């Protein structure tokens, strides 16, 4: 690991000017070292002092607060002089379709396999570790959720490009922050409501029901009401119910019994509507003390850079080329767990099997070692 720590050190020394944090003097910073020591409640008066500090301590992970404070170094919230906090959305590809665990191994006997297991077939142990990998499928899945989120923030909240910031985390996901000043003072309850709205949580088509029948929104309405009606009309037309679809478009009331007997249509419409919802970690959004990664810091599980992106950059963004931060200096690696084939910096590596010893560029070696698939040898 010392070899990779030196690579991190060179990065923070030679590329210090890339490290950035807006309103740096109002942020709390937290760092985790390669020794697993956590340093919290740190503040800086300037970007230069932040850059010098990171070059000195060589963090494995570097974070700063979405909250803005008069005295960010204070441990107690009531002493900090809270000025507001950006609204943060966390999109992690883990669990999304197309991105899953690729390796399971027994911590008792080291048996490993790609197929999921609850109990080791070799020794019977239940000490099973699930391991994921970072690949193109994960990034595509996470990007798709970011685009859904941005669409909702624009259409339903009226936010423009200057009020939203998109960041790649350096690993399997993205952070999206609302920077608009009118959102800074929102409390936890309001932020929780926003997160629930983004995911269309709690949507119930029965709100459109009354004694007289179902009065659905017109399809040109904004928000989830309009999305639901458009989905409902689409499902009706697919099932040759064009007349009912036209009635909804014209704002007519649909006979109650008709819809009750065809509840499956309503359920399918809700399901289709929710395909436009974004998958976010709601616990992150309502937390005003949450931390996010320092832009252009290195991620301690991949060696890739955490990067801020414009909306136009998101489509073409490829972390396996754009976020490479480490050098191509050779690093000797002993493979300890199966490594799938992967591409980084325009080159293809792997697949590799346990006990292979290889000499790889530092950026490729880091991905293997930091994801616990190998060990760097001095």
From TrEMBL:
The active site is at 90, 92, 281. Keywords: DNA replication, DNA-directed RNA polymerase, Magnesium, Manganese, Metal-binding, Nucleotidyltransferase, Primosome, Transcription, Transferase. The keyword Nucleotidyltransferase applies. GO terms for cellular component: DNA-directed RNA polymerase complex; primosome complex. Signal peptide: none annotated. GO terms for biological process: DNA replication, synthesis of primer. Its EC number is 2.7.7.-. GO terms for molecular function: DNA-directed RNA polymerase activity; metal ion binding. Its cofactor is Mg(2+); Mn(2+). It comes from the Archaea. InterPro entries: DNA_primase_S, DNA_primase_ssu_PriS. It holds the Pfam family DNA_primase_S. RNA polymerase that catalyzes the synthesis of short RNA molecules used as primers for DNA polymerase during DNA replication. Heterodimer of a small subunit (PriS) and a large subunit (PriL). Belongs to the eukaryotic-type primase small subunit family. This is DNA primase small subunit PriS. The lineage of its organism: Archaea, Thermoproteota, Candidatus Korarchaeia, Candidatus Korarchaeia incertae sedis, Candidatus Methanodesulfokora.
């Amino acid at each position: 690991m010392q070899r990779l720590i030196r690579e991190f050190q060179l990065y923070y020394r030679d590329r210090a000017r890339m490290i950035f944090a807006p309103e740096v003097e109002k942020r709390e910073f937290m760092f985790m070292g390669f020794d697993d020591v956590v340093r919290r409640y740190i503040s800086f008066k300037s970007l230069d002092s932040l850059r010098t500090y990171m070059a000195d301590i060589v963090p494995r992970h570097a974070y700063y607060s979405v909250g803005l404070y008069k005295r960010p170094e204070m441990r107690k919230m009531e002493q900090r002089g809270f000025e507001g906090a950006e609204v943060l959305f966390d999109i992690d590809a883990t669990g999304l379709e197309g991105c899953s665990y690729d390796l399971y191994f027994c911590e008792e006997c080291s048996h490993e396999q790609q197929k999921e297991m609850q109990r080791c077939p070799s020794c019977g142990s239940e000490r099973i570790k699930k391991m994921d990998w970072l690949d193109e499928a994960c990034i595509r899945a996470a990007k798709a959720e970011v685009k859904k989120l941005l669409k909702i923030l624009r259409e339903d909240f009226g936010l423009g490009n200057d009020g939203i910031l998109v960041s790649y985390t350096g690993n399997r996901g993205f952070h999206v922050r609302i920077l608009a000043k009118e959102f800074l003072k929102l409390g936890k309850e309001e932020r929780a409501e926003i997160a629930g709205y983004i995911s269309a949580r709690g949507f119930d088509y029965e709100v459109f029901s009354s004694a007289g029948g179902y009065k659905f929104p017109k399809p040109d309405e904004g928000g989830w009401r309009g999305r639901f009606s458009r989905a409902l009309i689409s499902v009706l037309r697919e099932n040759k119910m064009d007349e009912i679809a036209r009635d909804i478009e014209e704002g007519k009331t649909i006979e109650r019994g008709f819809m009750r007997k065809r509840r499956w249509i309503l359920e399918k419409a809700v399901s289709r509507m929710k395909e436009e919802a974004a998958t976010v970690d709601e616990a992150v959004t309502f937390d005003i003390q949450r931390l996010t990664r320092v832009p252009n810091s290195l991620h301690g599980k991949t060696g890739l850079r955490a990067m801020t992106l414009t909306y136009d950059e998101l489509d073409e963004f490829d972390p396996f080329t754009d976020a490479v931060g480490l050098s191509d200096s050779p690093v000797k690696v002993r493979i300890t767990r199966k490594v799938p084939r992967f591409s980084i910096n325009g080159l293809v590596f792997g697949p590799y099997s346990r006990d292979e010893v290889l000499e790889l560029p530092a950026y490729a070696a880091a991905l293997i070692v930091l994801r616990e698939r190998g060990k760097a040898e001095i």
